[in-house]
Specification:
Length: 112
């Protein structure tokens, strides 16, 4: 668990306020020179702290680590409320964050 103490720098760019979907959306650059990667859970808590929001209203996805390591880039959505997140966020991402339960069905049934 010594990795969590290593410094991580977050930079946001292409910040857009989207009032129709009730969220802020941005590209996030994560600098982590002494770590192989940063967990999405840790990123959610850092972004929530940075933008004075709840961790439950932050969604992060699409992170790619640059060749050679040290920098990752991905996308973040910070919703204004939990209701907006439940309304607009895809179900599989809500399942990832523990805000919905996965529907257990056979793959044949899901196609129909």
């Amino acid at each position: 668990m010594a990795d969590r103490e290593q410094p991580v720098t977050l930079r946001t760019r292409k910040f857009i306020r989207n009032p129709l979907l009730g969220r802020k959306q941005m590209v996030v650059d994560v600098l982590h020179p002494s770590r192989p990667n940063v967990s999405k859970d840790e990123l959610r808590s850092k972004l929530a702290e940075l933008y004075k929001s709840s961790k439950d209203t932050v969604s992060v996805f699409g992170f790619r680590t640059q060749y050679g390591g040290g920098k990752s880039t991905g996308f973040a959505l910070i919703y204004d409320s939990g209701e907006a997140m439940k309304k607009f966020e895809p179900h599989y991402r809500l399942v990832r964050y523990g805000q919905a339960t996965k529907v257990e069905k056979a793959s044949r049934q899901q196609r129909e």
